[in-house]
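Today's session is about reading a structure prediction critically. Students often jump straight to the picture, but the first step is always the sequence itself: look for stretches that repeat, for charged clusters, for runs of hydrophobic residues. Only then move on to the predicted structure, which in these notes is written as discrete structure tokens rather than atom positions. Here is the chain we will use throughout the hour.
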Amino acid sequence: MTKKIIALIIILFLIPVLIYTGLDDSIKDGENKKPIVTIDYPSSGEIVSNIVTICGTASDPDGDDNLLLVEISFEDYWMLLEGTSRWSYEWIIYDMDDGSHTIKVRAYDGTDYSKVEEVTIEIDNPDVIESDSHKWAVFIAASNFPEHNESKLGNGALNLAEEMTDFFIQSLKYPTSGIFILFDDGWIRSNNGYGRPIEPLEQRQHEYDITYGAASETTVKKTLKYIVNEANRFRDSEVFIWIASHGWGNSEKKLTGGKLLRRSAIYLWDKDTLTDKELSDALMDLDAKETCVIVDACYSGGFADKTIFNLPESFLLRARVPRSGRVVMTATSKFRLGYASTTSGPLFSQLWFKGLKTGEADGFRPGIARMGRPTRLRFFKDGKVSAEEAFYYAKYVLRTEKTFEDYNKMQPQINDQYPHRGFIRSLRGLILGG
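Below is the predicted structure for this chain, in token form.
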């Protein structure tokens, strides 16, 4: 009798187990399935420095619309990321300790977290410049953030930045560790910038090991701070800053662009503006005795403390980016539009760089009303092109060549305080890489 009771108990116990097992798939079909997250870049063992765009994907077996968020962790606390099914994070590691660091990522669908995905990378920030030259260059371009394609500038600014980078390394002796390209949100987009993100800039093939990053407010300001600190370590430092973006103004106000009693400003990727005063503040402590700043955007003259026709900005609105030892130039006056090619970059910068690279700008002078003209005296041709000569070359070409007659109202501006403040002491040109 006892055996029968035991057998009955076993059967009664097994029946629900068997029923549950048989119905397992149907029961699970009604349960929440955990999301899945992957890290596409960087991979474990990767050596990174300065800036790295961490990116990956996430999915939910129950449907990606259920994904609520993706989080990242470096030091045991979690931070919310931009994006869900495709996510990314700009990690700025200038001040991070060298060595192994673990990156952890997880996704959440409102019910369950995914399994934590992690990679261990090696940070190896440069301690010294790999040549005897103490030079830094940063190229900043935010081109494609507007929703409407007709407002986008394509990948032209990136292409021009890379072309200038090659020249600065090969001909001007700039070390690769001192060159930074900050473009859009750190991603390359298909269809010349008009399509979807396809890869982070770090994965872009380039002949030289330069630093890529995003043209976001945080990355731009931290990069400028890093360059200021590094350049101040040496007495012979040279700094080159190039900014190309959408300028802030009102194109319907033909005479002033809506810039009367307003500061010049350009848009960064996250749509926060960088004003001329904010750039001045970022460069306030820069001691480099050789500095060239170019801002190529609409209504940008305020960055050079100029309005139009080389007239000075009101003392109430002067940003003071220009200082002794600096040449500051803008593609347009404070009241005028600028122009750019979606494949070759902004027009003024193209011409400035052409004059510099080819040597065609050698001997160009300010001329009457600083309109720019070629020299009539061989004395002024020395086989080298200064930043100022390239400026007057670009301004002259815009004004005289029929090809550019639709753009000759840009009114590029310059504030030349190299090597010292004041007209008499600023006749010497700034030879980049000299």
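Discussion point for the tutorial: The longest strand covers residues 99-108.
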